[in-house]
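Example S7 (structure tokens).
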């Protein structure tokens, strides 16, 4: 599956620099398929190393993060290095947007995390904030912000190599937002980086970390390159669909773990729509009619205690305005490629390679977390709803939390990105396609289908069928709408809505 998503990523890079408006000829079914198969857009650098001809705009350069629980002082608060420090785990720096846009095609974010004195796996992320123009300081909770990248640090011992881990993210769509002067009118753009770490275990186990409180170092850069001389002749050719008026609407941004389990679960009244049910709804307003829209969605599952949600892969259902928009199961990849970064002994990696990662892991220590894109097409101005359901989640002992972040990106004319029909077909060869003919579900897939599940439209699992073959007939069910999800052994999945 990793190679499959890499293939999608490469074709997506190619599409972003095209100027033909291929999306106009895609059917709604093709768009739905794209939402299902072209979701993750992140990779580690050992899988996709930036070539030497890429230019970089470095925002943070080996900036050091400290014990997140130190609240009485900012350790590096007196440094005059242009970095705004909100806490010991959350920093910001302003961007020169013109210089960022000059990077050209194949727009990337590169994050390199260095080991210091936290030897555990932690969540880190990169965000953009949009304070009033001319700001030298701002309150992160009082300005619009979006999360553009998330990662999990490996278990690292700073005395062993490799002592840093790289992450690469494809962000071509983001350039369209940054290139819209009207959207950014009266606002500056700042990059924020957050890595919450603690040194207490490393203080005891890692040589040289006694009584130290520095946990990680991070270097963060935008990168890009010019594909040809023709593309450099006009600045517009560097921006996907430059000139289409852009709209940006933050939907939700998850809170750091220091605030407790307050994001998305079934036992905290602020983290769920209904106690006992793992459902969370976020309202958002779209300021104008959009000809094309997508939601950029990130979620990681946390809870490392007994029967922890971190170690159980569950189906996630995402609805927009009450209609099913995406069904996926996180994880489903081997963590072996990240073993080399996990230089500190831990309870995740045993002493020898394992082959059962796909059965239980939601993410890997050292992995770039996927950003999933939900393609919506045209969208009306007004109030809308994003709802997430994880029907099977248990949160044993009221422990654990899911951390969602999402924002909507749209345009009021044209399309967000250019998409070649040929590329879509090529990308779809290894995917799953479902078609409903009455009660019969026709399954087309290059790989054997491991399981087919049927849910009620509110996300209640009704039945599962292993190894269903190429055709499955639904049992007698009451009239209504249902969601049928098919998945392969290595985690590829697709869904179809069925009306009976």
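Recovered sequence:
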């Amino acid at each position: 599956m990793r190679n499959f998503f890499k293939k999608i990523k490469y074709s997506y890079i190619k599409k972003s620099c095209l100027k033909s408006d291929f999306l106009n000829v895609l059917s709604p079914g093709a768009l739905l398929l794209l939402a299902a198969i072209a979701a993750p857009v992140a990779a580690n650098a050992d899988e996709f190393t930036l070539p030497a001809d890429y230019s970089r705009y470095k925002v943070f350069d080996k900036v050091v993060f400290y014990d997140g629980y130190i609240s009485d002082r900012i350790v590096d608060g007196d440094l005059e290095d242009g970095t705004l420090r909100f806490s010991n785990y959350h920093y910001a720096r302003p961007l020169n947007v013109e210089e960022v846009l000059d990077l050209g095609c194949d727009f990337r974010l590169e994050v390199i995390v260095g080991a210091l004195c936290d030897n555990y796996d932690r969540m880190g992320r990169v965000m953009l904030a949009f304070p009033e123009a001319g700001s030298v300081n701002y309150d992160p909770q009082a300005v619009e912000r979006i999360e553009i990248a998330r990662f999990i640090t490996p278990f690292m011992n700073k005395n062993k190599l490799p002592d840093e881990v790289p992450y690469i993210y494809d962000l071509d769509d983001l350039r369209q937002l940054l290139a819209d002067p009207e959207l950014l009118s009266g606002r500056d753009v700042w990059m924020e980086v957050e890595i919450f770490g603690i040194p207490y275990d490393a203080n005891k186990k890692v040589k040289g970390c006694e009584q130290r409180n520095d946990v990680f170092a991070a270097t963060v850069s935008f990168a890009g390159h010019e594909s040809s001389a023709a593309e450099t002749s006009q600045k517009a050719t560097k921006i996907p669909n430059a000139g289409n008026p852009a709209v940006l609407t933050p939907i939700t941004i998850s809170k750091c773990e220091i605030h407790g389990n307050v994001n998305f679960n079934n036992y905290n009244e602020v983290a769920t729509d209904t106690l006992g049910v793992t459902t969370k709804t976020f309202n958002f307003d779209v300021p104008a009619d959009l000809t094309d829209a997508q939601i950029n969605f990130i979620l990681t599952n946390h809870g490392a205690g007994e029967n922890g949600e971190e170690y159980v892969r569950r189906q996630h259902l995402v609805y927009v305005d009450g209609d099913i928009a995406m069904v996926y199961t996180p994880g489903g990849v081997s963590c072996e490629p990240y073993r080399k970064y996990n230089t500190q002994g831990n309870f995740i990696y045993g002493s020898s390679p394992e082959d059962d990662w796909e059965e239980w892991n939601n993410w890997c220590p050292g992995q770039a977390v996927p950003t999933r894109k939900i393609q919506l097409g045209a969208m009306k101005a007004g109030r809308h709803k994003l709802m997430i359901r994880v029907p099977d989640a248990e949160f044993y002992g009221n422990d654990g939390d899911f951390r969602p972040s999402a924002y909507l990106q749209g345009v009021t004319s044209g399309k967000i990105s250019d998409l070649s029909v040929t590329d879509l077909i090529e990308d779809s060869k290894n995917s799953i396609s479902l078609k409903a003919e009455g009660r019969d579900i026709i399954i087309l897939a290059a790989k054997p289908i491991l399981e087919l599940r049927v849910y009620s439209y509110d996300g209640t699992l009704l039945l599962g069928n292993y190894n269903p073959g190429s055709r499955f007939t639904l049992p007698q069910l009451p009239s209504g709408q249902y969601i049928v999800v098919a998945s392969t052994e290595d985690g590829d999945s697709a869904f179809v809505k069925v009306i009976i």
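Notes on this example. Helices lie at 2-16, 28-37, 97-101, 172-178, 200-205, 229-232, 421-428.
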